[in-house]
Amino acid sequence: MLFPKGGWEMDESKTEAALRETVEEAGVTGIVECELGKWSFKSKRNDTYSEAFMFPLLVKEELELWPEKNVRERKWVSVAEAREVCQHWWMKEALDRFVRRLTFLQQEEDLGLGPCSLSLEPKISL
């Protein structure tokens, strides 16, 4: 199991590259969210180190046809299943970071906190 990954072109941002790779490799499109981080790893192909920037994607559409459909299978799995079959330590770490982010956001939501809820003005209940 691999997450979509690849390089980015000179005329695109990392976010645009992430969206392009998900369309090419997984046949999904959506909203690229805040970067999870950057990882360095040793490439199997040319025995050099590469860097990966990982982004979560809020999937909005699954495509029936995509560029790499004949060489890749798209499969939806739980977080636990993904972590279990993930081949690379840095992908597992990115997945763990994503889960922590979601947990933190859920805790904030449960407390009624949001991006605009922290105000300098006191609240008065009548």
From TrEMBL:
To which protein family does this belong?
Answer: Belongs to the Nudix hydrolase family.
Name of the protein in question: Nudix hydrolase domain-containing protein
Species name: Vitis rotundifolia (Muscadine grape)
Q: Which Gene3D superfamilies match?
A: Nucleoside Triphosphate Pyrophosphohydrolase
Q: Known PROSITE patterns for this protein?
A: NUDIX, NUDIX_BOX
Alphabetically ordered keywords of this record: Hydrolase, Magnesium, Metal-binding
Q: Which Pfam families match?
A: NUDIX
Single GO cellular component annotation? cytoplasm
What does the record give as the organism's lineage? Eukaryota, Viridiplantae, Streptophyta, Embryophyta, Tracheophyta
Q: Which InterPro entries match?
A: DDP-like_NUDIX (IPR047198), NUDIX_hydrolase-like_dom_sf (IPR015797), NUDIX_hydrolase_CS (IPR020084), NUDIX_hydrolase_dom (IPR000086)
Nudix hydrolase domain sequence ranges: 1-99
